[in-house]
Amino acid sequence: MGIDITGIFSESFWWLSLAIVNISVIITQSLKAKFNIKGVWQEVTAWIISSVLCVGGWFLNLISLGEPTWLSLVSLCFITSIATCGWYDIPAIKKFVNMLFSLKPKA
């Protein structure tokens, strides 16, 4: 029995992930300049900020996620975090999401 992941991403997922990435970058760069954050801590800070924004938005009901909700939230945190760190851009993220949609649950 597999997980049906076809409903993970709601319609607001795409614009919301872009908004979270932009806000995360602004906050991360502000903190980096203010506290002189260097090295791997820049990426750790970006991961934490984007994950907090995703989870906070979900708790405040600003984010409408598909089912299963926990997988949608983890996917949103992961995708926004890697984009905030600059590891992936939008075409790479779209390939990742398309790969998820191509997976078929085991019957």
What does this structure look like?
With 107 residues, this protein is mainly alpha-helical. It has one domain (13-102). It has 4 helices and no strands. It is globular, with a radius of gyration of 15 Å. It starts with 12 loop residues before the first helix and ends in a 5-residue tail after the last helix. 23% of the residues are buried. The model has no long low-confidence stretch (mean pLDDT 78).
Q: Could you write a compact summary of the structure shown?
A:
The chain has helices spanning 13-35, 40-59, 69-84, 90-102. The mean pLDDT is 78. The relative contact order is 0.21.
Radius of gyration: 15 Å
Low-confidence segments: none
Distance between the termini: 6 Å
Number of strands: 0
Helix content: 55-70%
Element-level helix/strand string: HHHH
Total domains:
1
Mean pLDDT: 78
Beta-strand share of residues = under 5%
Question: Tags for this entry?
Answer:
mainly alpha; 107 residues; 67% helix
